[in-house]
Amino acid sequence: MAGQLLESTTLGFIGAGQMAEAIARGLDRATVLPASRMFAADVNAARCQVFKSFGVLICDSNIEVVQKANVLILAVKPQNVEKVLVGLKPHFTKEKLVVSIAAGINLSNLQKWAGDARIVRVMPNTPCLVGETAAAMSLGDTATEGDSVLVGAIFAAVGSIHLADEKLLNAVTGLSGSGPAYVYLAIEALADGGVAAGLPRDLSLSLAAQTVLGAAKMVVETKKHPGQLKDEVTSPAGTTIAGLRELEKAGFRSALIEAVVAAARRCEELSKS
């Protein structure tokens, strides 16, 4: 069913920023929805050129995107969502599905501003570019089971997606939405540590990135708790426990927890502004 739905899907991007680009490129690369069936518009001409460079059809306006696509990815900045949706409201019909990836903008407001369109909220992250997104979605009141299957298929093609209660999406944003930045910082720090220990920069960065990738796959594929996997690497009086001791002294675990909570809190603030 999902495959049939994707075959008849035309995808429009209202806003052509980095996240929208990652989704579009990821879908095109996965060959489940080619760029030739995608449309985009953005006030920034340079961003439109980026989309055009890999085959997305550029429209003169958001209205044209709405007219040409049956699934619309709303990818404008949160502070611009109301203005954009209200402007497009007369052009939305019940046949249009709007998928909002704007952080902090709740379903009730999206529905109010979009009128007749069916609404789904999704919080993806940029690794959809390489087929490894971690996303969650919540359905609006008028969204159908078919919409859930279709949106699930779109994002499953570029990673994984979970159905979640809307009240959890701020926490999802703080964890997986913002999480890649925390991991990039960790990779950079690991690489710097390798350089400090005497490794050449390119070797150190490659080892750091692959180490994080491999460790993540171990958690996903073995289904073991990360604490158990940590213990399996940690020998008595060995090198790993010496490093872990320094991380605990520096508050590494607590810092990551607080980063997620702070990002989730900021998302909640955005929803009230």
Question: What does this molecule look like?
Answer:
The structure is a single chain. The chain is an alpha/beta fold and 273 residues long. The protein folds into 2 domains: 2-167, NAD(P)-binding Rossmann-like Domain (Rossmann fold, 3-Layer(aba) Sandwich), CATH 3.40.50; 179-272, ProC C-terminal domain-like (ProC C-terminal domain-like fold), CATH 1.10.3730.10. Helix content is 55%, strand content 13%. The chain is built from 13 helices and 8 strands. It has helices at 2-7, 18-29, 45-53, 62-68, 81-88, 107-114, 145-156, 169-177, 179-196, 201-222, 226-233, 239-249, 252-272, and strands at residues 11-14, 38-41, 57-58, 71-74, 97-100, 118-123, 133-139, 159-163. Strands 3-2-1-4-5-6-7-8 form an 8-stranded mixed β-sheet, sandwiched between helices. Helix 5 packs parallel to helix 6, helix 8 packs across helix 13 and helix 9 (179-196) packs across helix 10. The chain is elongated, with a radius of gyration of 21 Å. The model has no long low-confidence stretch (mean pLDDT 94). It is an enzyme of class 1 (oxidoreductase). GO terms for molecular function: pyrroline-5-carboxylate reductase activity.
What distance lies between the first and last C-alpha atoms, to the nearest angstrom?
39 Å
Which topology of the largest domain does CATH recognise? Answer: Rossmann fold
Strand content: 5-15%
Major beta sheet summary? 8 strands, mixed
SSE series: HEHEHEHEHEHEEHEHHHHHH
Number of helices: 13
Q: Which percent range fits the helix content?
A: 55-70%
**Spans of at least 5 consecutive residues with low confidence:** none
What does the oligomeric state look like here?
single chain
Query: For the record, what CATH class of the largest domain applies?
Result: Alpha Beta
Radius of gyration over all CA atoms, rounded: 21 Å
Count of domains: 2
The CATH architecture designation of the largest domain is 3-Layer(aba) Sandwich
Q: How many E strands?
A: 8
Shape: elongated
Protein structure class = alpha/beta
Q: What would you give as the CATH superfamily of the largest domain?
A: NAD(P)-binding Rossmann-like Domain
Mean pLDDT rating: 94
Largest sheet strand order = 3-2-1-4-5-6-7-8
Keywords: Amino-acid biosynthesis, Cytoplasm, NADP, Oxidoreductase, Proline biosynthesis
Family: Belongs to the pyrroline-5-carboxylate reductase family.
Catalytic activity: L-proline + NAD(+) = (S)-1-pyrroline-5-carboxylate + NADH + 2 H(+); L-proline + NADP(+) = (S)-1-pyrroline-5-carboxylate + NADPH + 2 H(+)
GO molecular function, one term: pyrroline-5-carboxylate reductase activity
